[in-house]
Amino acid sequence: MILPFLRGMGPMSTKPPSTPGSANYGVGSRGVLIPVYTTLTVQIWGSSGGGGGANNTLAGAGGANAYFGGTGGASWFSFPGGTLIAYGGGGGGNGLYDPEFGPTNGAGGGIGGASGGSTNAAGSGNSGGGGAILISASGGPGGRGGFVSRTWNWYDAGAPAFGSTLTLTCGGGGGGGAGFFNDGELGTVPCNGNAGADASASVSWT
User: pLDDT value at position 22?
Assistant: First the structure.
């Protein structure tokens, strides 16, 4: 039998009151204390790959795409029903300047994927590191990281529980790729690409 005063009351009738809020996170791993919420949203923008360096033939350091920037580190949020993951982008390849044959640009890094969310968008995370530029040859840009997002209602099966502490990790951006320049007088000096961006995350609730 349904008591008259309970008719029409949904799941909200047993939830403590909540205060909307949000928090942003950078690179590293930490425990996130889950507040009382009506809806909870976790978003992760994955780290990106490092840009490629640039060489010239006089440096004797190999051809185009002989060296690559680093791959961005993976990021994740673990909850009782699974794991949100945003993978890092790949590193760009080095460019080559050859006075006889001209410039060859390095290859761009691959994009990072994502899984576990209601939204999983490959290549929609943070932008990749820029490639080095040597005369008219440039290293390839680092690949963008993936993006993952999920929203829970407080009463959903497997939703994070109020007061629980869950792990959130944001990976670091990939290092810039190696490059080498030699002008015939000063010797060989580095001409490296730029490092990729670290992952970032947001936890918000109503």
Answer: 98
Distance (Å, whole) CA 9 – CA 32: 31
Residue 154 corresponds to which amino acid?
W
Q: Which residue has the tokens 């993951």?
A: 85
Pairing of strands 165-170, 54-56: unpaired
Q: Provide the Cα torsion 23, 26, 27, 28; round to 10°.
A: -30
Quick check: 109 and 140 in contact, CB under 8 A? yes
How does DSSP classify residue 105? P
Q: Which residues pair with 121 in a beta bridge?
A: 147
Contacts of 192 by beta carbon, 8 Å cutoff, 6+ apart: 53, 132, 176, 177, 178, 179
Q: Read out DSSP for 1-58?
A: ---GGGTT--GGGGSPP---EEEEE-SEEEEEEPPP-SEEEEEEE---PPPP-EEEGG
Give residue 13's pLDDT: 56
| Tokens read off for 26 | 């950078």
Cα–Cα distance measured from residue 155 to residue 152, given in angstroms and rounded to the nearest whole number:
8
Q: What is the pTM of this model?
A: 0.90
Cβ–Cβ under 8 Å, residues 115 and 44: no
At residue 194's C-alpha, the angle toward residues 114 and 181, to 5°, is 140
